[in-house]
Amino acid sequence: MIPTTIPHGRTARRLEWEYLPPMLRAEVARRCGSPVVAAESQRAGFTPGFASVLTCADGSRHFVKAASVKAQRMFALAYREEARKLAALPRATPAPRLQWIHDADDWVVLGIEHVPARAPYRPWSEADLTATLDALEQCARVLDPAPAALGLDTFAVEFAPFLEHWSTLRAAPADVPGFAAHLEEAAALAAAYADVCAGSAVVHTDIRDDNVLITPEGRALLCDWNWPVVGAPWLDTVLTLIGPRGDGLDVEAVLAARPLTRGVPAENVDVLLALVAGYFLAQSALPAPTTSPHLRPAQRWQGEVVWQWLGERRGWS
């Protein structure tokens, strides 16, 4: 286990319901079909957009996300893209459904199916991890090949900028054990990512505890479909294991047991780990956004976890 002081489940600084424009609140209530009587802001994640579970006078509950195109343009555009992708996902995808979208008056607002559920416990438990990996295997069955309606780029195209981080790290090496000694080996591994990660499946790319819901029945649903790409179906499983690895679970046993990863060459897994290690370690050295004070510590922790994991797999001292 690698200790962390990150306040899991309380990392976001979000807009609150009462600060949304009155006309927008009225439109949301109209879409929900009943006046809103309570709003519970969702504190997980690292973006500042509005994200709350709304309770209406008729007892119904709704998960609503919103961002201003002018004031929060990057997040508004991300919500718009998320809505497009949610609408195109097959119904068998283990994900809450998009119910409506309001894209006008300077705001992008998504009404998403509310699911009575919780985030995975931290530290990760074997039960929550099993449910999450089961959901990823369902995705592999439903989303391979990737539906054309999603209009996705490939993993190779979308992750090409990750290679640039190794130039940054050569100029300013990360202060983690063994980094200077093994930087070039790791960079060479990362450079092979395009062929290793190629495939025909939808890859979510952002499965973490704050993007997973565990239902009372123990089933996992996957949220925040902002950044999917087309690639190898095993990629999400490996990326999902970063948090559990840092929390002390035996992820090597998981890799050997799960159907999506047990036949993947060890070198291929190392290539992916090297690629994301460079990203996390380089990004964590940047100034923290005022709207997301926990982002850099979270990236640093993930970078340390991945670097240590890669080092153990490669036999680095």
Radius of gyration: 20 Å
Put simply, the count of helices is 12
Distance between the termini: 18 Å
CATH superfamily of the largest domain: Aminoglycoside phosphotransferase (APH), C-terminal lobe
Query: Biggest sheet, in brief?
Result: 5 strands, antiparallel
Number of strands: 9
Average pLDDT for all residues: 95
Rough shape? Answer: globular
In the CATH scheme, the class of the largest domain would be: Alpha Beta
Estimated share of beta-strand residues? 5-15%
Write up what this structure looks like.
- It is a single chain.
- This protein is of the alpha+beta class and 317 residues long.
- The protein has two domains: 96 residues, Phosphorylase Kinase, domain 1, CATH 3.30.200.20; 189 residues, Aminoglycoside phosphotransferase (APH), C-terminal lobe (Aminoglycoside 3'-phosphotransferase, Chain: A, domain 2).
- The chain is built from twelve helices and nine strands.
- A five-stranded antiparallel β-sheet has the order 1-2-3-5-4. It has a two-stranded antiparallel sheet with strand order 6-9. The chain has a two-stranded antiparallel ribbon with strand order 7-8.
- Strand 1 and strand 2 form a beta hairpin.
- Helix 6 packs across helix 11 and helix 11 packs antiparallel against helix 12.
- The mean pLDDT is 95.
